[in-house]
Design a protein that fits this description.
heterodimer, A: mainly beta, six-stranded mixed sheet, five-stranded antiparallel sheet, about 55% strand, globular, B: mainly beta, seven-stranded mixed sheet, four-stranded antiparallel sheet, about 0% helix
Chain lengths: ~110, ~110
């Protein structure tokens, strides 16, 4: 079983729609969680950290469910510029390295 | 501006040659990392270094070597022993925040070996 699993998609949604991705992780000792965004042929960029209480940044909301070991990302009022691959990332307690999911590809259509 | 630089952006080599990819950061981060990404795939960790003069193998270290003589620099050598070296190589550095480590990436080097 992969340490971090994501549905690779692709997700194709119309502009203005709400879209949600989930990600599951296998190691219960995982300590920190992040969502990264990667545009085609570019480097990943940190989108937001995921806090236990859930957190919001504009149109983006991240949730963590430790009991079920999954993380979610919700994008409201999607824009064409949200088209990208979204990477779920987990940091294991005691390790100074991150584990990346393979990413979920999102395309927003006009 | 603080950041991570990688050079060159594109690199072409003949099979059997060693090649060194550059990674420099001026963020004063202690930890640095090298990843490889293949088309349609996630990131795979090659090597990482938590402090100067120390580094650890990642998940796919075979055929690669690194050095960490300076805090700012973490070059990666792709040796001729690497069976499938053509890939997108990403360097990153990280800083510990209150809620964990945040990692930042350089722009990457696309290596093509023929």
């Amino acid at each position: 079983r992969k340490e971090v699993e994501q549905d690779p998609g692709p997700f194709n949604v119309p502009e203005g729609a709400t879209v949600a991705f989930n990600c599951t992780y296998s190691n219960s000792a995982s300590q920190s969680f992040f969502w990264y965004r990667q545009d085609c042929r570019k480097e990943p960029k940190l989108l937001m950290s995921v806090y236990s209480s859930g957190n919001e940044d504009g149109r983006f909301t991240a949730q963590l469910n430790r009991a079920s070991q999954y993380i979610s990302l919700l994008i409201r009022d999607s824009k064409l510029s949200d088209s990208a691959t979204y990477l779920c990332v987990v940091h294991l307690q005691g390790a100074q390295k991150l584990v990346f999911g393979q990413g979920t590809r999102l395309t927003i259509n006009p | 501006d603080g950041g991570i630089t990688q050079s060159p952006k594109y690199l072409f080599r003949k099979e059997g040659q060693n090649v060194t990819l550059s990674c420099e950061q001026n963020l004063n981060h202690d930890a640095m990392y090298w990843y490889r990404q293949d088309p349609g795939q996630g990131l795979r960790l090659i090597y990482y270094s938590q402090i100067v003069n120390d580094f650890q193998k990642g998940d796919i270290a075979e055929g690669y070597s690194v050095s960490r003589e300076k805090k700012e620099s973490f070059p990666l050598t792709v040796t001729s022993a690497q069976k499938n070296p053509t890939a997108f190589y990403l360097c990153a550095s990280s800083i510990k925040r209150e809620r964990g480590y945040e990692q930042y990436f350089g722009p990457g080097t696309r290596l093509t070996v023929t």
